[in-house]
Specification:
Number of helices: 10
Keywords: Cell membrane, Membrane, Transmembrane, Transmembrane helix, Transport
Oligomer: single chain
Family: Belongs to the binding-protein-dependent transport system permease family.
Membrane topology: Multi-pass membrane protein
Helix content: 55-70%
Strand content: under 5%
InterPro entries: MetI-like, MetI-like_sf
Shape: flat
Distance between the termini: 65 Å
Structural class: mainly alpha
CATH topology: MetI-like fold
Subcellular location: Cell membrane
Order of helices and strands: HHHHHHHHEEHH
Radius of gyration: 28 Å
Number of domains: 1
CATH architecture: Orthogonal Bundle
């Protein structure tokens, strides 16, 4: 009969701690403190490359330099011409965007209310979301004529479907445990939507708003390039088109730069602020 042997006991030992190395105070400064300089540095580098290419081509009609475009931009601001065109475009964009957001939330409510509504909205988004809004411009001109109504129609279309798709997907992705927690606290109906569903689906809703804003801004500029003036007033796209007809290429680039600047401003001051005070503060995004 064999006897079991006990495993050998290994001696314990303690590793000595290494002495702490003092880190200079200057080396402990994080580079994140200068994170706000990254985007301006990127824009400055692009402007330098642009100016070098323009000087290499040496043809102001085809490619004006960054400095020449900057002078045209400043002249347009000081004279008030560019500001007038921008104000017309932003006024129409705001109306169309708000109408699209209101319609999207109605469709989203229908999608999450019952199974038939969900299948209906899924079918509609599959049909109309891939359809470019600018493709509806001929019908808009036929139905509403040459004016603000045509622009509002294509803007609502460009916002409605991507926002509905993102918002409905966000509501469906809310965990059941959150819904059960809300019911345990006696929430139901509108209170459940406002206090549980919307905060949980807010990342998807904000993504849909950003996509809808970008689609609406591009659609508006493209539509204004086609017929441009509404009620005798032209927008930023019409300013670009008119400058091209008059061979003021520096003004064309100034108009394009204005489109980019407005897009960057809306992204930074509106959407990033919303994300910072909501989903990032709540720990739902990094």
């Amino acid at each position: 009969m064999t006897t079991l042997r006990e495993p050998p006991i290994r001696p314990e030992y303690v590793l000595p701690l290494r002495p702490a190395v003092a880190v200079p105070a200057a080396a402990s400064i994080s580079l994140d403190r200068f994170g706000w300089l990254r985007k301006p540095a990127i824009l400055l580098a692009l402007a330098v490359v642009w100016e070098v290419l323009a000087r290499w081509f040496d043809n102001d009609l085809l490619l004006p330099g960054a400095l020449q475009t900057g002078r045209a931009f400043v002249d347009g601001i000081l004279s008030g011409e560019l500001i007038g065109y921008v104000s017309v475009s932003l006024a129409i964009l705001s109306q169309g965007f708000l109408l699209g957001v209101a319609g999207s939330f109605l469709l989203t409510w229908l999608a999450v209310s019952n199974r038939f509504g969900r299948e209906l909205i899924d079918t509609l988004t599959s049909m109309f979301n891939p359809l470019p809004a600018i493709a509806l411009l001929p019908l808009a001109l036929l139905w509403f004529g040459l004016g603000k109504g045509s622009l509002l129609m294509v803007l609502v279309h460009s916002v409605l479907w991507p926002l509905t798709l993102n918002a409905s997907a966000g509501f469906r992705a809310v965990p059941e445990t959150l819904r059960m927690a809300g019911r345990n606290y006696g929430l139901g109906g509108l209170r459940m939507v406002l206090q549980i569903l919307i905060p949980a689906a807010l990342p998807s809703i904000l993504s849909g708003l950003k996509i809808g804003w970008a689609f609406a801004w591009r659609t508006l500029i493209a539509a204004e390039l086609v017929f441009g003036s509404t009620s005798g007033q032209g927008g930023l796209g019409w300013y670009i088109f008119q400058s091209r007809n008059e061979l003021f290429t520096d003004k064309v680039f100034a108009g394009l730069a204005t489109v980019i600047i407005i897009g960057l401003a809306i992204e930074h001051f509106v959407f990033q602020t919303l994300e910072r005070v909501t989903v990032r503060r709540w720990g739902m995004q990094r």
